[in-house]
TrEMBL record, chain A:
GO biological process: peptide transport; transmembrane transport
PANTHER family: TRANSPORT ATP-BINDING PROTEIN (PTHR43776)
Keyword Calcium listed: no
Entry's family note: Belongs to the ABC transporter superfamily.
Name of this protein: Peptide ABC transporter ATP-binding protein
Keywords: ATP-binding, Nucleotide-binding, Transport
Organism, as annotated: Alkalihalobacillus alcalophilus ATCC 27647 = CGMCC 1.3604
Superkingdom to which the source organism belongs: Bacteria
Pfam families linked to this entry: ABC_tran, oligo_HPY
From TrEMBL, chain B:
Keyword RNA-binding: no
Organism of this sequence: Alkalihalobacillus alcalophilus ATCC 27647 = CGMCC 1.3604
Domain ABC transmembrane type-1: 71-261
Predominant place of localization: membrane
Top-level taxonomy: Bacteria, Bacillati, Bacillota, Bacilli, Bacillales
Transmembrane among keywords: yes
UniProt-recorded name of the protein: Diguanylate cyclase
Similarity comment: Belongs to the binding-protein-dependent transport system permease family.
Origin superkingdom: Bacteria
UniProtKB/TrEMBL annotation, chain C:
NCBIfam families reported for this sequence: oligo_HPY
Keyword Nucleotide-binding: yes
Organism, scientific name: Alkalihalobacillus alcalophilus ATCC 27647 = CGMCC 1.3604
Name used for this protein in its record: Peptide ABC transporter ATP-binding protein
InterPro entries: AAA+_ATPase (IPR003593), ABC_Ni/Peptide_Import (IPR050388), ABC_transporter-like_ATP-bd (IPR003439), ABC_transporter-like_CS (IPR017871), Oligopep_ABC_C (IPR013563), P-loop_NTPase (IPR027417)
GO MF term set: ATP binding; ATP hydrolysis activity
Location relative to the cell: Cell membrane
The keyword Cell membrane is annotated on this UniProt entry: yes
Record GO biological process: peptide transport
From TrEMBL, chain E:
Organism name: Alkalihalobacillus alcalophilus ATCC 27647 = CGMCC 1.3604
PANTHER family xrefs: DIPEPTIDE TRANSPORT SYSTEM PERMEASE PROTEIN DPPB-RELATED
One term under GO cellular component: plasma membrane
Mode of membrane association: Multi-pass membrane protein
A matching Pfam family: BPD_transp_1_N
Transmembrane domains' residue ranges: 7-26, 100-121, 133-161, 173-193, 249-274, 280-303
SUPFAM superfamilies: MetI-like
Entries under Gene3D superfamilies matching the protein: MetI-like
Protein name: Glutathione ABC transporter permease
Length: 330, 273, 344, 493, 317
């Protein structure tokens, strides 16, 4: 696959080049190599510019989280490169990785599972700050407390345990943890999905505010299209391990090109449209990432599929400025 | 969390009895009415009476005093053998579960499989026979026999936890592996380990008694409940108190520790929150 | 009023525990007409599921209806015995749950699970029941149903499992179907399929539906009537159109506004400050008072009644009463209330 | 006795019908490890051998020698040649005849170094076996050996079928063939051995169709089975049960002085027992009376020498009581204090009790004795290698006093675990062996007893008495000092 | 098929390790079998020649290798005490142990199932407390104590049952059962205690599951839900545990067998360890380990019957 934008552009913070992540199917055979794989991420490329927010949407199991983890090198990519500020971090050794992780952080979906239940908030945050020597020892407490206030908690929360917080507050703690090391890029993996709408709004506002305050760059993963629209500058749509459409927000939401994107957008039950809109109801279920259909991976559910779709995998083409799509029919 | 523990009356009973027992064991010399080894040949096989609440044994010793001293041995047997099992099992389980891979899959797990397919008492017996009779050796043998259970438990806990997001978050924050293992994973696996440990203490006490029954446990004249029981079982028809009281105490102790362990489990189980 | 399939009056539900009794539902009133779809919305933990479980008579062990009445076809459900309730459940009233993944017994074939419900309520043979199950699967749009009845739940996708649940619920032609967040766990494209299916089945079976959700978008799609719950109370009862056109209760307003909109660009989302107080710290008056931008002193101490504002809308808020002007004009915020409450 | 009555319905064997049944069920204290007498080393084996095999000679109630397979015998003047005249109609269970050839075969077998028979030590003075004719055989010794006849009343005198041995080789132990009144049927180890009447038995036919021998390691269980009627008779009962059983109206309890001795081996080559005063102090400090009363409930006799009162060699001097003062004085004079040592014992309740009593007795003379329980296998090993200070181990006894003394106290003898080396003792033992006159031997053994008391390489504690318990209907049992159950004379009434 | 091959391979590996462990353990045991066989009367020459004969003088590796070669050809060697082939001994013992195990299991299940169900469905009531106490009592009584107590009560005092001993089923059916009842209770009570606890907690967990609510929503009554939906699901962890417990119970039988004079494998192992009958110890332990592994293998197969989600592909969860 061709690289979609020229490399080494100075304002590119992150460049992902056709990364793949295949999970071998559980097989404990001693000698034989695996032949079946879950192709969770199957060749994804994009760039993230400094200071922007890239939204990623897609249905459950399409590989969003795996992609996020692979970028962070929490899972080593099966193939492809991840360039952060021009350096390929997928080739880094443990030590350098630990260092680079100061710059890339992640916030997880589950506000319960992503915090260590047995550590106070303060201990958890100070630990990270110690490890990366962000501030001198005697300033840690002050630094952490300031951080807590920044994310909308108060100083006293330093001494509390995670279970003493509500869901929204916990997510703020996760945000504080991500911010603690002064990262450049934060990957938000469904960071607000578990929250109630009213709390979700609070957290979204906070994320936006912090972005300007700390000059952050986000990759914002979610299945909620309205949330992604609210927060992102550009949006990518994933289907079965691939990005099928990538465009800036406006173009994407006003004029989606890929049949899947169109169907997805039409499926969202919307509060605002008083008249019920015409829906595109897709047939059937998402195929398993174990058996990705030949040709265009969407053809099994595509209302417009033609012969070519069944045979040939479409390229990821640029069809307009900053608008890429992977479909034969566009 | 504590309040949940205290709601469980049985657990509270278990806890109180366990602590009482520890107290008795610690202060045995100040509590006993008689020297537990003092023999009085004119007082053999006397039934319970005002002077000897639990009667006297076959060589005229005070059964109550021996039962009290026996608490020392039995608790030691329980605590130390479980301590040994923990000392070996926890690090191996942690490392094996965290790193997986060849050593875990093909060496450590297979050896624990092999050890687990031995009948535990047979293994303990063989080990004790190799090491020689005596309380210390019995404790080592029981400890070794208990170890694979702990390795398995801890390993499976670690495997469950290392996929959790808080561990990934720790990795993502650039923490070193050993720090994640010791500071994050270990404290979170404490609850099942604690529960397993209390249960193992109970079974270690019974195992010590069983080894003593086979002559491989405590050496005379030290009073251990198991040894008293095996010496006294011959007198079940004529002087039942010799075996009955230590038997009763083993029973009560094990039951208390089990209840206590159950209480801890309920207390720590997030599902029951 | 004989048009009403179900009437819930002043329902109080709570949980017994060592230290006493915590009331969660605090006087819930609503009714569902025959053939109507009622949606219940509200934040997590406000008591939506508890309401539906009370109707089904399936409250958890320590749960208890402490006050109020539930009338189904004019009969009081709260007074029925276990055996009587079991004849109604699955037959006259059916229920679909949120989690299609775990709501089916993993060790039995799906056909058997559907047939079990049929056999329980209709005097039919095993074989007939299974045939009926096949019919039901066809009805909910599962391809090759003759084979699928022999599948185990884990062999089916989430959407298919939810269809199985729907088939099971509909198998005895219930008069009332309660669906507790039936699509929350599903993907949007699958959710669209299911909502479509439910709409079409509703026509066919002519039943009443109570649909619980926290997604206002879903409400907009399916509801005739909506009740908005907050902390165990109904704060607004309205037709779906009026609700979105002109929400009355400050909570409803806040809720609708805090959802990111697809068609407008927002710099910042309007939010409702604070969070739901826990059951033991509820104000005596309006439960939303601690977060309400308009709250006045009396809001904290006086419980607003559910009043009809117009034909389509009822709301529980002092602002819509004549008293509002007489109530002392001073605004109170949560902190102040707490201070006062503490000195009491 | 209610237990008796109710148990009969369940037990399947009704006690009052016992006389109708044709099976004798004997309970043993352990599972016999061996059914080959020439390989056997465990005392319990011999109980089974008595039914399976005949010996050349036997002893009677008065410990006199009587003929068995040998109807008669002569001893040459020099005490070197023993001539045996054999019974003539004897056949082995496999039908082959018993004759002088067979006798020679048997002794050759025991002497064969590659067969490693434990019997070798008893018969290794045999120089030559001369077949005179089919039923007459000369056994020629290399030097006079007074105890020789007594050896032939036990395992060394048991005759196995040469044909069977040749056919079965090492498997003989699993299908033993002798000339005894009962022949081997089957065996389930740890469970039972079944024998059936040998219809071609040369002597009077035994009373039972079958004999069943069942092992019970636990003494309580053993007694319970007798009381409940599952057993007809019992070998060895725990001393604590003596009283209960003797009061049971349905049970006959027979008592017989034993021929063995019990006590403690002191290792004379390691501290603190290199000094004879220390050893003797122990000997003096022990209150044997207390032990026989408390542990054995009167079922044992205090002991000060290897020879029990029933033996003609028993010393005449009086049983000394415990003498703590003298023991202390002895230690003081020797200038030792703070003596401490470890006694190894077998893990059995009675052993533990006795050890603990001795421990207390020794503490009164300021000695610290630790107790270590060692299971038998390890104990034997440590005895052999000398890796011990004191070991509590006795000897089941032999008819001839030599069998109780020589092997233990002669320098470097096979069982001289104490490593006792005393020229006087060696001289006396040699003399006793080669002297044929009983009176003269008695005097020598008296001296030996004295010397052992003085030197105390071994602390004699008690002589065990043998108890056999049986249902009242069991008759004809001959309780002889060798403690054997001779099934050929037993019948039910 | 692949699964089975894999399991067989795994089984082989485990058995190999078991054999190494037991062989080394047995060989570091103090005490020399030759001394034990020949006893106190042995002469040094006899001992030496016996050691030679038994091959005890060879290096351990060679001894091990010869033993393994034999085992692979189905020859477990001969008892060094009386030369009986180990296989013959095992064949005698296996039916005994099998009978005891089956009867114990039967008793355990007869107790555990009703008690477990009652205490789970009546959680927090007196029923629940009593059955918890019962279950705990079962694990808390040392087996030898319970055994002797049972003999004392049922055989000696009441005289209802014979105290101890063994008769094969084929010889006298009723008496064989009668003799086995007390030992089977001794083992069974302990097993039932564990099973009751497991069944209770797994039932409690299953009863929380969403599909239970579905059952009620269909109109099932409690009975229908518990037996139709909860029980089978709850059984799955219980079966795992009983599989894992097998090792304990084969070995827990050691003491029970000794007390009740049941000539089973457990007793065989203990006496053989004490008499240093190495080939027998090795053979018997290998057999027990094999049995345990085999049972766990069958448990895995049983799983797939009980729980269709589990495939024999060898997933770890
Ligand atoms: N460690 C793993 N081993 C094997 N398969 C995996 C692993 N992690 C993820 N997968 C599979 O990869 C696919 C993509 O998973 P991923 O979690 O990335 O999806 P997602 O888009 O984040 O979904 P969701 O919206 O549900 O979070 C899924 O089919 C999943 O089952
Ligand atoms: N078994 C229980 N014991 C005690 N409290 C309970 C129990 N079940 C529910 N509750 C409480 O009752 C309240 C209402 O719960 P309910 O399940 O009805 O909420 P919900 O509106 O359905 O929320 P969600 O959207 O999360 O499903 C919650 O605050 C919850 O804490
Ligand atoms: Mg995800
Ligand atoms: Mg709910």
């Amino acid at each position: 696959m061709k690289n979609i934008e020229k490399l080494q552009q100075p304002d590119n913070l992150l460049e992902v080049q056709s990364i793949k992540k295949y999970f071998p199917l559980e097989n404990n055979s001693l000698f034989k190599k695996n032949s079946r794989f879950v192709k969770a991420v199957d060749g994804v490329s994009f760039v993230v510019k400094k200071g922007e927010t890239l939204g990623i949407v897609g249905e459950s199991g399409c590989g969003k989280s795996t992609m996020g983890r692979t970028i962070l090198q929490l899972q080593t990519p099966t193939e492809g490169e991840v360039l952060f500020e021009g350096e390929d971090i997928s080739k880094f050794n443990r030590k350098r990785l630990r260092e680079i992780r100061k710059d890339i952080q992640i916030i997880f979906q589950d506000p319960f599972g992503s915090l260590n239940q047995r550590m106070t908030v303060g201990a958890m945050l100070s630990e990270i700050i110690h490890v990366h020597k962000i501030v001198p020892k005697n300033e840690v407490l002050k630094y952490v407390q300031k951080l807590l206030e920044d994310v909308g908690l108060n100083k006293e929360h330093y001494w509390r345990y995670p279970h003493e917080f509500s869901g929204g507050q916990r997510q703020r703690i996760s945000i504080a943890r991500a911010l603690a090391v002064k990262p450049k890029l934060i990957i938000c993996d469904e960071a607000v999905s578990a929250l109630d709408v009213s709390v979700q709004a609070q957290v979204l506002n906070l994320l936006k505010k912090l972005k300007y305050k700390y000059n952050l760059t986000y990759i914002f993963i979610s299945h909620d299209l309205s949330v992604v629209k609210h927060i992102s500058d550009r949006v990518g749509v994933m289907y079965l391990g691939k990005v099928v459409e990538l465009a800036n927000k406006k173009a994407m939401y006003q004029d989606p090109k890929h049949p899947y994107t169109q169907a997805l957008f039409s499926s969202i039950p919307d509060v605002t449209s008083v008249n019920k809109k015409e829906r595109i109801i897709l047939k059937g279920d998402v195929p398993s990432p174990l058996n990705i259909p030949k040709g265009c991976r969407f053809h099994t559910r595509c209302p417009a599929a033609e012969n070519i779709c069944r045979e040939k995998e479409p390229d990821f083409r640029k069809i307009a400025n900053e608008h890429y799509v992977s479909c034969h029919l566009v | 969390m504590m309040s949940r523990f205290f709601q469980n009356k049985l657990a509270v009973f278990g806890g109180i009895f366990t602590f009482l027992l520890i107290f008795i064991a610690l202060f045995a010399p100040f509590i006993v009415p008689y020297d537990p080894t003092a023999q009085n040949y004119s007082m053999i096989l006397q039934g319970p009476s005002a002077e000897h609440w639990f009667g006297t044994d076959e060589i005229g010793r005070d059964v109550l005093s021996r039962v009290i001293y026996g608490a020392q041995v039995s608790l030691q047997a329980g605590l130390i053998s479980v301590g040994i099992a923990l000392a070996i099992g926890v690090p191996i389980g942690l490392i094996s579960g965290y790193y997986r891979g060849f050593w875990d899959e093909f060496i450590i797990m297979r050896i624990t499989d092999a050890m687990l397919s031995f009948p535990p008492l047979v293994l303990a017996l063989a080990l004790a026979a190799v090491l020689g009779a005596g309380l210390e050796n019995a404790m080592i043998a029981i400890g070794i026999v208990l170890t694979p259970n702990f390795i398995r438990l801890i390993r499976s806990e670690v495997i469950a936890h290392r996929e959790r997001e808080y561990v990934e978050a720790g990795k993502a924050s650039g923490l070193k592996d050993w720090r994640i293992i010791s500071k994050h994973i270990l404290p979170n696996t404490m609850a099942p380990i604690m529960v397993q440990a209390t249960l193992a203490i109970a079974s270690a006490i019974i195992s010590e008694a069983s080894l003593s029954y086979l002559g491989l446990g405590t050496q005379p004249p030290t009073a251990s409940w198991g040894a008293m029981l095996s010496a006294g079982q011959g007198y079940l028809a004529t002087a039942p108190w010799i075996a009955l009281f230590p038997g009763l105490f083993i029973f009560l102790t094990v039951i208390s520790i089990n209840l206590f362990g159950d209480g801890i489990r309920d207390m720590l189980d997030p599902k029951l929150k | 009023m004989e048009n009403n399939q179900l009437v819930v009056k002043n329902l109080h539900v709570g949980f017994k525990h060592k230290k006493g009794f915590t009331t969660i539902l605090n006087g819930v009133d609503f009714s569902v007409r025959k053939g109507e779809t009622l949606c219940i919305v509200g934040e997590s933990g406000c008591g939506k599921s508890l309401t539906s479980l009370s109707i089904m008579g399936l409250l958890p062990k320590m749960g208890q209806v402490s006050e109020g009445e539930i009338l189904f076809d004019g009969q009081s459900l709260t007074e029925k015995t276990k055996t009587e309730m079991s004849k109604i459940r699955g037959n006259d009233i059916s229920m679909i749950f949120q989690e299609p993944m775990t709501s089916l017994n993993p060790v039995h074939r799906v056909g058997k699970q559907i047939a079990e419900a049929i056999k329980l309520h209709q005097k039919v043979s095993k074989k007939e029941a299974l045939n009926k199950a096949v019919e039901m699967l066809r009805l909910v749009g599962i391809p090759s149903p003759e084979e699928r009845v022999y599948s185990y739940p884990h062999e089916l996708s989430g959407g298919m499992r939810q269809r199985i649940m729907i088939a099971m619920a509909l198998s005895c032609n219930p008069k009332l179907l309660i669906a507790d967040e039936p699509t929350t766990a599903l993907d949007v494209t699958i959710q669209a399929q299911i909502l479509e299916l439910m709409n079409s089945l509703k026509q066919e079976f002519n039943m009443s539906i109570i649909m619980i959700t926290h997604d206002l978008g879903v409400v907009n799609e399916v509801a005739d009537k909506v009740i908005v719950m907050y902390a165990g109370k109904v704060v607004e009862y309205s037709s779906v159109k009026s609700l979105f056109k002109e929400p009355l209760h400050p909570y409803t307003k806040g809720l609708i506004e805090s959802i990111p909109k697809l068609d407008v660009e927002q710099k910042e989302l309007p939010i409702i400050e604070g969070s739901v107080p826990n059951p033991n710290e509820m104000p005596k008056g309006c439960r939303f008072a601690t977060r309400c931008p308009n709250a006045v002193k009396d809001c904290f101490s006086k419980l607003p009644p559910l009043i009809s504002v117009n034909d389509n809308q009822e709301v529980s808020c002092w602002m819509y009463t004549e008293n509002w002007n007489h109530m002392s004009g001073e605004r109170w915020r949560d902190e102040e209330y707490r201070e006062v409450a503490a000195t009491r | 006795n209610s237990a008796e009555n109710t148990s009969t319905d369940i037990g399947g064997v009704a006690a009052n019908e016992a006389t109708d049944k044709d099976v004798l069920v004997i309970g043993l204290d352990d599972d016999p490890p061996q059914l080959d007498p020439h390989r056997s080393s465990a005392a319990v084996d011999r109980q089974t051998f008595q039914s399976l095999y005949n010996k050349l000679l036997d002893i009677d109630e008065n410990l006199e020698f009587v003929g068995e397979l040998a109807k008669d015998w002569d001893i040459s003047e020099d005490g070197l040649t023993y001539t045996f005249y054999l019974e003539e109609d004897v056949v082995f269970h496999d039908g082959t005849p018993f004759n002088a050839e067979a006798v020679k075969f048997n002794f050759d077998r025991m002497l064969d170094p590659s067969f490693s028979s434990p019997r070798a030590s008893e018969v290794n003075l045999l120089e030559e076996i001369v077949i005179i004719n089919d039923y007459e055989v000369d056994l020629v010794l290399s030097e006079p050996f007074a105890p020789f006849l007594s050896v032939l009343t036990d395992r060394a005198g048991m005759m196995v079928s040469p044909t069977a041995v040749e056919e079965l080789g090492n498997d003989f132990a699993n299908q033993p063939v002798g000339t005894g009144p009962y022949k081997f049927d089957s065996r389930v180890s740890q469970s039972k051995i079944e024998l059936s009447r040998f219809e071609d038995y040369w002597d009077e036919l035994p009373a039972f169709e079958k004999v069943e021998i069942r092992p019970f390691a636990d003494s309580n269980v053993r007694v319970t089975n007798l009381v409940s009627g599952d057993l007809d008779m019992l070998n060895k009962i725990a001393f604590k049960d003596i009283e209960i059983l003797s009061n049971d109206p349905n049970i006959t309890l027979l008592e017989q002085d034993g021929i063995g001795f019990q006590g403690i081996h002191l290792n004379t080559t390691v501290e603190p027992f290199t000094q004879k005063e220390v050893r003797k102090a122990i000997n003096l400090a022990i209150d044997r009376e207390a032990i026989t009363n408390v542990v054995f409930h009167g079922g044992a006799i205090p002991s000060v020498s290897p020879f029990p009162p029933i033996s003609w060699a028993a010393p005449e001097f009086e049983q000394p009581n415990a003498n703590v003062e003298e023991a202390k004085k002895l230690l003081e004079e020797a200038g030792v204090s703070d003596v401490s040592f470890t006694l190894k014992i077998n893990p059995r309740p009675e052993e533990e009790q006795m050890a603990q009593m001795i421990q207390q007795m020794l503490s009164e003379i300021g000695m610290t004795m630790n107790i270590e329980m060692v299971e038998f296998g390890t104990m034997l090993d440590q005895l052999e290698s000398g890796d011990f200070q004191a070991v509590r181990l006795g000897w089941s006894g032999r008819i001839d006093p030599d069998g109780n003394a020589y092997r233990f106290f002669y320098s470097n003898a096979s069982n001289n675990y104490s490593n006792f080396a005393n020229p006087t003792m060696d001289k006396l033992l040699d003399e006793a062996r080669t002297t044929v006159d009983v009176e003269a031997r008695k005097e020598i053994y008296e001296e030996i007893s004295d010397l052992l008391w003085e030197e105390s390489p071994y602390v004699f504690v008690y002589h065990e008495q043998d108890y056999k318990a049986m249902k009242n209907y069991v008759k004809g049992f001959r309780h002889i000092a060798d403690q054997m159950i001779r099934t050929n004379s037993i019948y039910f009434e | 098929m692949k699964f089975i091959l894999r399991r067989v391979g795994l089984m082989g590996a485990i058995l190999f390790l078991v054999s190494v462990i037991i062989f080394s353990l047995v060989n570091v045991l103090p005490g020399d079998p030759a001394t034990l066989i020949l006893g106190q009367e042995a002469t040094p020459e006899a001992l030496e020649s016996l050691r030679e004969e038994m091959g005890l003088n060879q290096p351990l590796i060679i001894q091990y290798f010869e033993w393994v070669t034999g085992v692979l050809q189905g020859d477990f060697g001969h008892s060094i005490r009386d030369n009986t082939p180990v296989t013959t001994i095992l064949v005698q013992k296996i039916p005994v142990t099998l009978q005891l195990t089956i009867m114990s299991f039967f008793i355990a299940i007869m107790i555990a199932v009703p008690v477990g169900i009652i205490s789970a469905t009546r959680k927090g009531t007196l029923w629940d407390y009593s059955s918890t106490l019962f279950a705990l009592s079962g694990v808390s009584i040392p087996p030898f104590f319970l055994g002797i107590l049972l003999i004392f009560v049922f055989a000696v005092t009441l005289g209802w049952l014979p105290p101890s001993g063994y008769v094969p089923l084929s010889e006298d059916f009723t008496r064989s059962l009668m003799l086995m009842i007390l030992p089977a209770i001794t083992i069974g009570i302990r097993l039932s205690a564990e099973l009751t606890r497991m069944l209770r907690s797994s039932l409690l967990e299953v009863l929380q599951a969403d599909f239970i609510r579905t059952g009620y929503a269909k109109g099932l009554l409690e009975r229908g839900v518990v037996f139709g939906h909860a029980f089978r699901n709850a059984l799955i962890p219980v079966i795992t545990v009983s599989g894992l417990q097998m090792a304990t119970f084969l070995g827990g039988a050691v003491i029970t067998e000794t007390i009740f004079a049941v000539p089973g494998i457990g007793q065989l192992v203990v006496t053989s360890i004490l008499t240093r009958d190495f080939p027998v110890v090795q053979g018997a332990v290998m057999f027990m380990a094999f049995a345990v592994i085999l049972i766990n293998f069958m448990v895995d197969i049983l799983y797939t019957v009980l729980d269709p989600r589990i495939k024999l592909a060898g997933g770890t969860k």
